[in-house]
Amino acid sequence: SVGSSSASTFTLIGIPGLEAANFWLAFLLCSLYLLAVLGNGTIIYIIKAEQSLHEPMYLFLCMLAAIDMLISTSTMPRMMDLLWFNSTTIGFDACLLQMFCIHSLSAMESTILLAMAFDRYVAICCPLRHAAILTSPRIAKIGLASVIRGATVMAPLPIFIKRLPFCSSRVLSHSYCLHQDVMKLACADIKVNIIYGLIVITSVIGLDSLLISLSYVFILTAALSLSQEARLKALGTCISHVCAVFLFYVPFIGLAMVHRFGKIHGSNIHVVMANVYLLVPPVLNPIVYGVKTKQIRHRITKLFQRTTH
Fold it and tell me: Distance (Å, rounded) from C-alpha 185 to C-alpha 177?
């Protein structure tokens, strides 16, 4: 068997068939990346500066914005390099590091979305105990737990890849490194990688999405017992979170499905899904929350008025 040192580099690909448009695609990616950084940076700044926003919902939103900035930063600059300067090779260790960042940050985002669902559940189902249950130290602990959980669950992925020998073909099917993509290039038994990958998907994404759905069952049940006005107000506070949940889980599950059940011949669906999964939540989350949250909207307007004067 060939040693694992046989893979010193991997080849990343842009969007097959659209090579001629690479310059403009990179331009689009660059704009989206700047939008994501600006949007999430603004959310963090406003929540930090506005004392009235130091509530569980917004503190979790702050964490979500930070994760979104990190996830787009771990992939975007490299993708722009690929599209603009056609630098297709990525070192083995750089690939493993990027893979770890993408997967662990995704797990952290999933945990924070679950924490936000719990916050909405407590706020609507036991409003009087909300402040006592979700204290600032507890929120900080939840944030720390999400980081530890994301990092420990995903740490074995690069280790499992590191022990594999790689064959002659080292061309990845995305413009960044994903575990399920890299492991398919190994010329050895990848059963361990597949089983561990499935365990991670079920215990993180599967469990979190199940608990989020469950909390919404309780929220809806509690909301139905309220007067119509109170019900609309209560459910109104959940809309942004529901949007954020869909923005994260739909592309994630879509991408997992495409990898599990093979690629459709001659189609770029997996490439499109992979880029949507990494780009859309960081760009749209700040917009959704900015539009839906009166305090944030008000503060952004004030910021703009200050800069234009």
Answer: 12
Token match 């097959």: residue?
Answer: 16
What are the beta bridge partners of residue 83? none
Which residues neighbour 54 within 8 Å (Cβ) at sequence distance 6 or greater?
A: 47, 136
**167-195 tens-digit pLDDT:** 877 888 888 898 988 998 998 999 999 99
- Residue indicated by tokens 């010329």: 187
Its CATH architecture, for the domain 4-308, is Up-down Bundle (1.20)
Q: Which tokens go with 145?
A: 């737990």
Distance CA 203, CA 207 (A): 5
The predicted-structure confidence for 228-274, as pLDDT tens digits, reads as follows 898 888 888 899 899 999 999 988 888 877 777 765 555 677 777 77
Contact 159, 253 (CB under 8 A): no
